[in-house]
Amino acid sequence: MFGYYLITGFLIGVVSMLNRNRMVRVLLLVLFLAIQTAMTIYAYFHLNMENAGYFRFDALGIIFMCVLTLLSYTTIYHSFIYLQHRKDSSRSQSFYFAALIILIIVMTCAYLASHIGIMWVFIELTTLSVSVLIYHERTPLSLEATWKYVFICSIGITITFIGIVLLSIAMEESDVIEFSFKAIQTKLVQVDPSWLKFVFLFMIIGFCTKMGLFPMHTAAIDAHTVAPPPISAFISTTLMNVGFIAIFRTYSMFAHTSILHWMNNVLFACGLISIIVSAAYLLKVNHLKRMSAYSSIEHMGLAAIGLASGGIGYFAAIFHMVLHSFVKSSLFYQIDQFHRNFRTYMINETGNYFKRNLPGAMVFLLILIAIIAMPPSGLFVTEFWIFKALFFSSHIIIFILALFFLTICIYSLAKNFLFILFNQTKDLLPALENPDPSETYSQYFLLALVFYLGINPPAGMMNLIHDAVSILP
Amino acid sequence: MTHILLITFAISLIYMGIANRLSTYINILALQGIILFGLSFIELIQINTLNLIFILFETIVFKTIAIPLFLTYIIKKNNIVREAQPFVPDFFSVVIITSIILGSFILSNIVTGVHIQKMFFLVAISALFSGLFIIITRKKIVTHIMGYLVIENGVFILSISAGNKMPMLVNSGITLDIFVSVLVLGVFVNRIGNTFEEMSVDNLTDLRD
User: Fold this and answer.
1) Minimal Cα–Cα distance from A441 to chain B, Å?
2) B209, part of any domain
3) Is B159 in Cβ contact with A146 (below 8 Å)?
4) Which residue of A176, A177, B93, B204 lies most exposed, with the fewest beta carbons within 10 A?
5) Cα distance from B157 to chain A (closest Cα, Å)?
6) pTM of the model
7) How many distinct structural domains can be found in chain B?
């Protein structure tokens, strides 16, 4: 089944690259979304089944696959709006959608891969397909960002590959080694701890490029800044989830060895420094998309801390990633409208958004509440759990530092958002166009989901997350 | 024999530190491709034939012929100045790369508990860090790709020492990925060459806070 999905998906991608007709393009995208949805439903009802040799429908993969499928609908819809307003040629639209379809497929594969080499290959493929999308606007700035993104990600993923090779050396055996996550996990117990630390460090540094954690966070920031807003929404949510899944799987592979405590310390360091870096840059940032990117880094840091503190933290980290995906994507969709209204992303050249575009301003206000984790936002619940886990695992210093820098992040975000919404001291140029209110419905839907899931999470989702963390100690 | 090849590889890294002309860099990369061919031929002769042919094909066709030709084409097409223009003096580069090799030597002797061929590990780790060093200290964007290729060669040496245990499908996927990523990087280098007058990292500093 998964094999058929892969083949038809790639075929649709190729056809939509060659196609120049608008009607056919819409049909192809609808067909693709239907296949993607069908695959998600099929995967949900075949939990923990192997498929196509190298893939496995495990709980963690399915959670993020559902998020991806939901966000593909909104991203494709907003991409249409974005491309229509840019008046791009039919050819560049074809390339855009072909790359988008391929990106969605390879991300699905990266989520579900049960073999570490296959996961590596698909993570590398996400870099290549998203680079086409980042370069869509064809400006010198987008060229610079794409170059940096592809280059840093390639180096990161190469370092990960060194980690994988070192891992295979550790599991020295005469025959072909079984490289699925499960098989590796059972074999690692006999390996020397100092070697395992070495391997873990290499693998985690590489995957940090994808997740946007501290040592390799710079690439993702620049990519956010210049990518088309619907694609920024993808980079900041589903693509970071790819990195999270990779780190989570690596972590759970090593979790039953004696280096667990040391691993937690590494993740604490990555997470905490990510929060500190994002707090420092958020104080001075003036570019709305860069600000959102730094806010993503901050949330990734929180998820890493949740993962490291154990207990309920595992659960909270996954839940946090899911909810963060919904908030961030709606923020980037709204930024597209914002840009059409002001023709700039610079925060200090804007203001009074409440008068200029009421539906959009309401979205910003709700996003502000959601992203700073003010109740009733779902992120409040997850952040509360993360800090609870930190407290119970008696990491008081990290607890205090994380809270302190989180407060700085909240201050900066609130300051900038409120400036955009209410500042009336500037003589602004009149709005060039006022976006159609119906474009905001999808954003309201995603935000409603964030609030609803925080208050009343459905039992099916909870079971999936419980299932995903059950392999951890 | 493998030791001689590995030592030649390490020396080629030091030579890369003092090379001035870009064509020298390309020649060194081609030479490293030949060394990798020899290494994989000696080390992997007992694995199954199809896999071996694939790996030999990769080292000779990709690493020794295709990629150097592609880089030469990029340099010609974009009229890149044929000097490498490092930020640091040559003497300094040699000292750093030598100390990288020395450091990897010490590291490979510290690591215990795992059965590993020390020589391979040593050269691979030195190639990784020398590649990173070349990327950091050279001004041209093309030299960044060359540094990346040096890292790739180091990874290749490491995977030879692991004995080729990955399944064929995974192996070919990985190889294809690396080749495609070099091609994509090359395409973007061309774009950068068309957009900016000079292909140096000084042009890539607009994105910042």
Assistant:
1) 33
2) no
3) no
4) A176
5) 10
6) 0.93
7) 1
